[in-house]
Structure formats: structure tokens, C-alpha cells
Amino acid sequence: MKLRLLLCILVLVGCKRPSTPLVKPSSGNINTITVVIPDLLWETEVGDAVRAAFAFSAEGLPQQEPIFDLRQMPPEVFTGFARSSRAILWIGFSDDVVIRTDKNRYARPQQMTVLSAPDTPSLVEMILSQSTGIIKSIKQGEIAERQRRIGKSTLKQNALQNHFGIDLTIPSAYHVFKENAKTVWFQREIRKGHVNLLIYELPNSTTLNWQNPLQDIIRIRDSVGRAFIPGRLEGTHLITEKAYEPYVYYTKMAGMQAIETRGTWEVKGDFMAGPFVQYLIDDKANNRYLILEGFVFAPSIAKRDYVLETDAVIQSIRKKKKD
User: Fold this and answer.
1) Can you say whether the dihedral through the CA atoms of 142, 67, 188, 165 is positive or negative?
2) Closest to 174 in 3D by CA, of 316, 29, 322
3) What is the CATH class of 159-319?
4) Which region holds residue 193: left if phi is over 0, alpha if psi is between -120 and 50, else beta?
């Protein structure tokens, strides 16, 4: 009798459903949004609004590349594997205005934003007005996803801890290309070029107008390029591209105030150029400015995702004690 009761309990436990449903892992290329919208609507001003709001040219690139690649599909085929996309934008008509974001609805991690309205003008206005917040959230998700992928195979190095008391999660494909007491340069080879990470520090007595920093940032970048990053030809070096003014934002890194700069670099005296992203951190605790920069040289191929890779590495910054 006791044995029969025990078997019944085991069967019941085995049949008990988990308290939370199993969610499959999300998938998809970096910087790609699945846009679920009827084909006919995609060809109207609603589709034009989606493209204008989510596929405009990314900042700081030497040639035009969209901020996101858009993968459109009608609702009737949004089933099965299609639902595993990491970033989803659902656009359509409804009796009421709907602005909703679902997290991990069909996969994990996943952001699905639903925008619907009763008529075309309202829907177009909604898409344009809501895009800034949606883009910010998707970008954060893409950085986190790139960091997750990097974490599968990381570079083992002590240079950053020894020189600066920090650490970064860097892909194993990188290596220390050049270093001195105040600067470390990592590089990895790619098809027809290379991706670079540059970390250096300056005393906080360095002239820097925090309220209007662009000219000082350009001066600092160009002086470091002159001293540390030579071009292919003798007497050439990396500078900030003069023809296009970089974009500047204020942000925080590892709890410290920082200035984010995005733009293009060039080699003075040579025909070389590419995009860069830089974070200048006000590290008050150590009486210094800490500068972390990613720059890409990849002529004739797309560079957007390489810039995001360096951005993801830089945003993984962690403070560590120097040995």
C-alpha cells in the first residue's frame, strides 16, 4: 500500500507543470528588427514612417549604413521560428491606440513593441514620436547581446589591470598590438582591415572644457594619434576627420561622468579613414581622465557592426585594483 502511494506521488510530481513556461532563446543578426506589418501597409506612408524612424543613417560612419536592418513580414507568417527574433516591431490598425512593449514574449531575450491606431495619420505620428525611446531600448539590448556572445571566448590579459586598474571583456580574437606606460592598443584582423581598441589616461589637469568639449577632444585625439598611431607612410598619423564634425553626448560609464564622441578618423597625409567611438571618463577618484576608444579600418565593407562590437567591449568596463 505504501509502495503504491509512493508511486502515485511520483507520477503526480512528474506530471506537474513548471510554474513558468519554457522560453526558447532568441536569435537573429545584430542590429536587425523584425517588422510585422501587412504587405500592403508596408508600401504606404506607414511603411515610409517605419523606414524613416528605424533605418536612417547611423552616426559617425564614412558611408551610409542604416542604424538597423529591417526585416518585414506580414502577420500571417509571423509564426514558429520567426517569433524568436530578438527585436520585433508590430505595426497595424486597431479600434484603440495601443503602445505596448512586451519582454520575452516568445523568446529570451526579446523586446516586442506593439504600435497600433485607428487611422493612418495617427499611426504615422505614433511611429515617429515613439521611435527615439524604442531605438534606445533596442540598442541597449543589442549591446547586451554582443557582450553575451563575446563572453563565450574572451582574451586573457593583464595589461589593463596593470596600467589602469580596470578590465574589459574583450573577444579572444584581439591581441595587444602596442603598449606603453600610459597607453594600450588592442587589435584584431578582419577581412580587408582591422578593428582597434585604444585605452589611455591623462591627468585631470589636462585642458578640457566640459561644457563645450568638442575642440578639446579633437585636440587630444589628434595629439595621441601623432604620438602613438602612425599611418602606412612615413610622417603620417591618425587624426579626427576635418570635413565632418563628430557627434558629442554626455553619459555615464561605471558610475562616472563621461563624454561620448562618435565620428570619423583619417590619416593625415594618406588616403585612409573610418569610424570611431570614444568615451572620455572623468575618473575623479584617480585624478585622471580615462579614455577608451574603438576605431575601425575596413575599406569597401560595412562597418556599423564592428563599431558596435567596440562599443560593447568599452561598456563592459569594470574597476579593479592595480597589482
Assistant:
1) negative
2) 316
3) alpha beta
4) left
Convert 216-238 into a string of H (helix), E (strand) and C (coil): HHHHHHHHHHHHHCECCCCCCEE
Q: So where are the chain's domains? A: 23-150, 159-319
Please report, for the chain, how many H helices and E strands are present, in that order. Answer: 7, 17
Task: Measure the CA–CA gap between 70 and 89, rounded to whole angstroms.
Answer: 10
Residues 133, 85: Cα–Cα separation, whole Å: 19
Tell me if 26 sits within 8 A of 108, measured CB to CB.
yes
Digit-coded pLDDT (tens) for 112-152: 999 999 999 999 999 999 999 999 999 999 999 999 999 99
* CB count in 10 Å sphere of residue 209: 10
Q: E strand or H helix at 47, and its extent? A: helix 45-54
CA distances to 82, 99, 132, 241 from 276, in Å: 34, 35, 22, 10
Q: What share of the chain is helix, strand, coil (3-state, %, to 5)?
A: 30, 35, 35
C-alpha to C-alpha distance for 113 and 54, rounded to whole angstroms: 13
Q: Would you tell me how many other CB atoms lie within 10 Å of the CB of residue 21?
A: 6
15-34 pLDDT, tens digit per residue, is: 444 445 567 999 999 999 99
Enter the pTM of the model.
0.89
